């Protein structure tokens, strides 16, 4: 895996991933998200990928899955994440709570490399979910 990050000006950078996608990164949030926001987005994408995949393999009728992520950071530099809360809002038809709970647990404990890497680095990550019945 490879990514190049090029300084543009001030605190604005452009990233180009090995797969050819470009992302603007900006500490002032004028041209893109801040770096730590992208880290949270990466975590959200990683764990959501797992949860949705597990639910589909479990033949759950999922319509939507939103990972709402909030994080606390240390007051001192380096301002690392100290706790991250990942709350899934899973919408579907006749979803089984036990199956969704299992999908979230498997992602958190076995599959999501971003989550596991952060936890092994000392970040507390709390997972929760709620079910919404689709119309």
What is the CATH class of the largest domain?
A: Alpha Beta
CATH overall fold name of the largest domain = GMP Synthetase, Chain A, domain 3
Number of domains: 2
Estimated radius of gyration = 17 Å
Distance between the termini: 41 Å
Shape verdict: globular
Strand content: 35-45%
Question: Can you give the helix content as a percent range?
Answer: 25-40%
SSE arrangement, N to C? EEEHEEHHE
Structural class: alpha+beta
Account of the protein in words:
- The protein has 135 residues and is of the alpha+beta class.
- It folds into two domains: 1-33, N-terminal domain of TfIIb (Single Sheet), CATH 2.20.25; 35-133, 2-Layer Sandwich (GMP Synthetase, Chain A, domain 3).
- The chain has three helices and six strands.
- Strand 4 and strand 5 (81-93) form a beta hairpin.
- Helix 1 packs across helix 2.
- The model has no long low-confidence stretch (mean pLDDT 97).
- InterPro entries: KH_dom-like_a/b (IPR015946), OsmC/Ohr_fam (IPR003718), OsmC/Ohrsf (IPR036102).
Topology diagram in text:
Elements: E1 3-9, E2 12-17, E3 22-26, H1 35-57, E4 61-73, E5 81-93, H2 97-111, H3 113-120, E6 124-133
Parallel strand pairs: 5-6
Antiparallel strand pairs: 1-2, 2-3, 4-5
InterPro entries: KH_dom-like_a/b (IPR015946), OsmC/Ohr_fam (IPR003718), OsmC/Ohrsf (IPR036102)
Protein name: OsmC family protein
Pfam families: OsmC
């Amino acid at each position: 895996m490879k990514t190049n990050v090029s300084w543009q000006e001030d605190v604005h950078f452009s990233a180009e991933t090995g797969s050819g996608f470009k992302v603007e990164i900006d500490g002032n949030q004028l041209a893109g998200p801040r770096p730590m926001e992208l880290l949270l987005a990466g975590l959200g994408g990683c764990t959501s990928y797992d949860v949705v995949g597990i639910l589909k393999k479990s033949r759950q009728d999922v319509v939507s899955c939103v990972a709402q992520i909030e994080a606390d950071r240390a007051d001192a530099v380096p301002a690392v994440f100290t706790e991250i809360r990942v709350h899934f809002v899973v919408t579907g038809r006749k979803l089984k709570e036990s199956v969704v709970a299992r999908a979230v647990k498997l992602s958190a404990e076995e599959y999501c490399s971003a989550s596991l890497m952060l936890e092994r680095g000392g970040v507390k990550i709390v997972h929760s979910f709620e079910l919404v019945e689709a119309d």
